[in-house]
């Protein structure tokens, strides 16, 4: 998504604000009910710019989803410290990933994607490719700093970790909309899953640097 953003700071800020307003309107009114007029009214954006940059409403929706995925990745990049042990890496990523995933906006977007994926397969496929798969790939590249293994195997390890992290919490929040994920639950999940994955990685790759 970031390759579509303007180059100037002011232009980038306006584009990000448009995408955030757009996803909020989609969540509030549903995909079908979220008109470009409503999005423009809330964001102050231009219909001409939206068509030029994103093509149509679906393009705008996909760009907004891509921005949200980028936000989580950028939060991790900003927090990254080269000297971390493998266990510390798991815990730090888990904490940042879950915190980003369980914001009100992110949960609303996730529900909307699941609701639309059957009727609009391209939305589901985009979400899986640019959100789910990319999270595996990005964290696998971090694991390369700790483990000398083929990237395909590290992507599998990253997927195991991420799905273990969010699985129970995600199902609860999707099935019981009145509940929330607390910071304490995020911390507990990050620590517990980091412990489990560090043991598993050391058994799978004994040469792992996992202090």
Tell me what the structure shows.
By secondary structure, this protein is mainly alpha-helical. It has a domain at 65-208: Tetracycline Repressor, domain 2. The protein is built from nine helices and no strands. The protein has helices at 9-33, 36-43, 47-54, 57-79, 86-101, 104-116, 121-143, 151-175, 183-204. Helix 5 packs parallel to helix 8 and helix 8 (151-175) runs antiparallel to helix 9.
Defining traits:
211 residues, 9 helices, Homeodomain-like_sf, DNA-binding, HTH tetR-type domain-containing protein, TetR_C_Proteobacteria, DNA-binding transcription factor activity, mainly alpha, Tetracycline Repressor, domain 2, elongated, 0% strand
Short note summarizing the structure:
The chain is mostly helical and about 210 residues long. The protein contains nine helices and no strands.
Number of helices: 9
The CATH level-2 architecture of the domain at 65-208 is identified as Orthogonal Bundle
Q: Could you say what the CATH topology of the domain at 65-208 is called? A: Tetracycline Repressor, domain 2
Largest sheet: none
Radius of gyration: 19 Å
The secondary structure category is mainly alpha
The residue ranges in which pLDDT falls below 50 over 5 or more consecutive positions are none
The arrangement of helices and strands along the chain is: HHHHHHHHH
CA distance, first residue to last residue: 36 Å
- Average pLDDT over all residues: 89
Number of distinct beta strands: 0
Protein name: HTH tetR-type domain-containing protein
Pfam family, one: TetR_C_7
Keywords: DNA-binding
Organism: Sutterella wadsworthensis 2_1_59BFAA
């Amino acid at each position: 998504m970031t390759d579509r953003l303007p180059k100037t700071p002011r232009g980038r800020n306006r584009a990000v604000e448009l995408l955030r307003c757009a996803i909020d309107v989609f969540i509030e009114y549903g995909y079908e009910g979220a008109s470009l007029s409503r999005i423009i009214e809330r964001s102050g954006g231009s219909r001409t710019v939206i068509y030029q940059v994103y093509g149509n409403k679906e393009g705008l929706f996909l760009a907004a989803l891509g921005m949200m995925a980028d936000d989580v990745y950028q939060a991790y990049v900003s927090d990254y410290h080269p000297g971390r042990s493998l266990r510390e890496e798991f815990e730090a990523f888990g904490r940042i990933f879950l915190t980003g995933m369980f914001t009100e906006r992110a949960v609303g977007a996730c529900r909307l994607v699941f609701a639309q994926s059957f009727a609009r397969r391209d939305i589901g496929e985009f979400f899986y490719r640019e959100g789910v798969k990319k999270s595996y790939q990005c964290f696998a590249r971090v694991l390369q700093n700790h483990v000398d293994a083929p990237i395909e195997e590290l992507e599998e390890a990253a997927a195991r970790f991420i799905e273990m992290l969010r699985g129970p919490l995600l199902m609860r929040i999707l099935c019981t909309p009145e509940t929330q994920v607390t910071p304490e639950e995020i911390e507990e999940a990050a620590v517990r899953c980091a412990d489990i994955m560090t043991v598993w990685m050391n058994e799978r790759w004994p040469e792992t640097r996992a202090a």
